[in-house]
Amino acid sequence: MSQDTNGSTTTAAPGSGGAGNGDALENLLHEGRQFPPSAEFAADAVVSAGEYAEANTDRPAFWARQARELLSWDKDFSQALDWSNPPFAKWFVGGEVNAAYNALDRHVENGIGDRVAIHFEGEPGDTRSYTYAELAEEVRKAANAFEALGVAKGDRVAVYLPMIPEAVITMLACARIGAVHSVVFGGFSADALRSRIDDAEAKLVVTADGTYRRGKPSPLKPAVDEALTKPGHTVSNVVVVKRNGEDVNWVEGRDHWWEDTVSAASGEHTAVGHDSEHPLFILYTSGTTGKPKGILHTTGGYLTQTAYTHKAVFDLHPETDVFWCTADVGWVTGHSYVAYAPLVNGATQVMYEGTPDSPHQGRWWEIVEKYKVSILYTAPTAIRTFMKWGRDIPGKYDLSSIRVLGSVGEPINPEAWMWYREVIGANAGKNGETKEHPAPIVDTWWQTETGAQMIAPLPGVTATKPGSAQVPLPGIAIDVVDEAGESVPDGHGGYLVVREPWPSMLRGIWGDPERFKDTYWSRFEAMYFAGDGAKKDEDGDIWLLGRVDDVMNVSGHRLSTTEIESALVSHPSVAEAAVVGAADETTGQAVVAFVILRGDAPNNGDATVLELRNHVGKEIGPIAKPKHILVVPELPKTRSGKIMRRLLKDVAEGREVGDATTLSDPTIMSQIAESLRK
Ligand code: WTA
C-alpha cells in the first residue's frame, strides 16, 4: 500500500502468478503509473492517513465512533458488535435509529432545511429541486399514505419505479415506518417482478405509469398488471406515480394514483427509532444458481458504513459539494449512494432519469456544467462508451467543478481510467484548458452483499494507480487467499475474502439462512468469500480480476449464467443451453448463449435466434438478452456431465480452443466449429 503524498511517482507493478484472466491481466502487469494527491487536496481532505491506524487497532470501536458521529440515535447502543453466532452479526446492539429521520428531518432541525437535497433532471428536460425541508415533508406524507393503505412495520413493499424523486421518497417512507422495501429494477420483466413479489410476500407495490427512454415514453405499469394477473399473490394495493401521462389499465380498489394518496396525505408524521438490526431492505441479486437471492440489509450498520464511506472516499464537503451518482435505484449503488448516504450526510445531489445520449451525447456533461457537479460516481462501461463517442463531446462543456471522480461495478481498465482522468478530471473549461492537478479517481470495490464500499483509495491520502481499487477502507479487513485459504504474499493472486465482520454486511438471504452460509461462508473457514479473483501487487495493493464463479458482469450489472440458461431451456424449442460471459469492449462482458434445439423444433436461423432472445427478455428482462445465440449440435461436457464453459468462452471470444482432452467426446469442439462455419 502506498500512502505517499510527496508528489513522487514510483513504478511498482503487480506481480505475477495466481488467478488471472488472460490479456487484461497481462496489461495490468505492466501498469506502473501512480498519482499522489496534490498538496492542496491533501491539506483540505476530510480524512487523513491516521484513520487507518485508529481503525485497525480496534475495528468495532472505530465503527462505534462513526455510528455516533454520523447518525442521531433515538437510543444509544450498548455494544458495537455481537459476533457470538457467526456468520450472523449484530451491530450497534440495543440501539434505536430511524433512517428517514437521519436522512431528512434532523437536517431541517439543524438549520439546513433550505439546502437542496435533490436536483432532479428528467429525460425530456423537465426539472424539479427539493430542499431538505420539502423532501422531508414528502416522505412524511408518503409514510402516512402507506400506513393508511395498511402497511405496518415489518411489511414488505415492492418498488418498481424509474429514476424519479418518488423512488427515493418511497424508499425513505418505508424506512420511516419500518416497512422493508424491495426495489425491482425497471428493466426487469413482469415475470421477474412477480417472483420477487412472491419471495418477499410484498403487500404494496409502488410504480409509475412509465418513464422516458431516448425521447420516447417507456411503460412500467403494464408489467405490474401482468405480474399480478395470476392469482395467489400477496399484493392488496398498487400506488401509481403519474410520470409520462400515457394511458394505463386501472384496477378499481387496488390501484391508487400517487397524487390522490400521497400528495393528499398529511405532512405531519412522527418518526420512531427502530432497532439497529431492524430490516431496512431486501435487494435481489444474481448468484450462481437460477434463483435470485434476496439480500437482506438492516438499519444501524448499513447507515453507518454507507455514510462513512460516502464522506471518506469522496472527500465530501456537504456545504459546498454537488454529488452525482449515475446509478439507478434498482441497483445497490443507487440504494447506498443515491437514496441513503448523500441524504444522511446532508449533501446536495443530482438525480437524472434518462440515458447519456438523449437527446445528444453531451447530456451528462451538460448536466455537470449546469449543476456544477463536484463529485461524479459512475461505472467503467459508461466511461468506455464516452471514449467511443470521442473526447470532443465532453470537451465542449465546462467540467471544471469536478474535484473527485468515482468508479464502481467492474474492474476499470487502465486506458479507461487514464481517459477519465485526462478528459473529465483535467477539464478546466470548455476552451480546452486543463487543470494542473486533475481530479483524483477513486475506484471502489464492493457488492450488493457488502452494502457499502470496501476497497478504495482515499483521495487525499492514497497515491492512486490506474486500474486498481488498492486499499481496504479503514475498519475493513480484506485479504487475498489461495485455494487452501492461506493469505497469499504480495505479488500473488487468489480469491478475495473479508476476514472480519463489517457494519453494512448482509445479514442473510431472505428466507434462506442455509443458502447464506453455503454461498458466502463455507468456501473458507471463518471468512466471507466474495466470489471475485484478486491480486496483491508488490506494494500490497489490490487489483480486482473479475468473478471466479458463474456470475457475469454486463455493463456493471450482475447476471447469472444459470438463470439465463434456465430461461432458455424454458422455451419449448430448446433442449439444452450453456451461457458464457465473453469479453466485450464496451460492456465489459457480453452474454453469449449456445443452445441445442429439440429434435422436432425447426431451426429458422435468425428468426429462431430473435425468438429466443425475446423469450429471455420476457423471462428475466431486456438486460439479460444474449448478445449472440449460437445454435450448436452438442455441448462440450466432461465425462461426469459438467459443461465446460471455458471452451465455449474460447469460441465466444474467437480464441483458439484450449485443452479439450477431458471431454467425454473430444470431437465435440470441432463439430461446434463446423456448425458455426455454416
Ligand atoms: C464487481 C455493485 C472490480 C465484482 C456495487 C463484484 C467490481 C460485483 C468493482 C458486485 C470494482 C464491483 N472493481 N470489480 N471497483 N465493483 N465489482 O452486487 O465482481 O451489482 O463482485 O454491486 O461487481 O456487483 P453488485
UniProtKB/TrEMBL annotation:
Residues bound to CoA: R213, R214, G215, K216, T333, S555
Report the GO terms under cellular component: cytosol
PANTHER family given for it?
ACETYL-COENZYME A SYNTHETASE, ACETYL-COENZYME A SYNTHETASE 1
Q: Which cofactor does it need?
A: Mg(2+)
Q: Which domain of life is it from?
A: Bacteria
Q: Does the keyword Endoplasmic reticulum apply?
A: no
Q: Which reaction does it catalyse?
A: acetate + ATP + CoA = acetyl-CoA + AMP + diphosphate
Q: What post-translational modification does the entry describe?
A: Acetylated. Deacetylation by the SIR2-homolog deacetylase activates the enzyme.
Low complexity: compositionally biased ranges? 1-14
Q: Where is the Acetyl-coenzyme A synthetase N-terminal domain?
A: 52-103
Q: Where is ATP bound in this sequence?
A: G409, E410, P411, D443, T444, W445, W446, Q447, T448, D532, R547, R558
UniProt binding sites for Mg(2+) = V569, H571, V574
Q: What is its EC number?
A: 6.2.1.1
What keyword terms does UniProt attach to this protein? Answer: Acetylation, ATP-binding, Ligase, Magnesium, Metal-binding, Nucleotide-binding
One Pfam family in the UniProt entry: ACAS_N
Please state every residue range assigned to the domain named AMP-binding enzyme C-terminal: 563-642
Query: What is the similarity comment for this entry?
Result: Belongs to the ATP-dependent AMP-binding enzyme family.
Residues modified to N6-acetyllysine: K642
Example of a GO biological process term: acetyl-CoA biosynthetic process from acetate
From the Swiss-Prot or TrEMBL record, what is one GO molecular function term?
A: ATP binding
Residue numbers spanned by region Disordered: 1-25
The major lineage groups are: Bacteria, Bacillati, Actinomycetota, Actinomycetes, Micrococcales
- Name-wise, this protein is Acetyl-coenzyme A synthetase
- Role played: Catalyzes the conversion of acetate into acetyl-CoA (AcCoA), an essential intermediate at the junction of anabolic and catabolic pathways. AcsA undergoes a two-step reaction. In the first half reaction, AcsA combines acetate with ATP to form acetyl-adenylate (AcAMP) intermediate. In the second half reaction, it can then transfer the acetyl group from AcAMP to the sulfhydryl group of CoA, forming the product AcCoA.
Q: What gene name is listed for this protein? A: acs
Which leading EC class covers this enzyme? ligase
Q: Which residues form the AMP-dependent synthetase/ligase domain?
A: 113-510
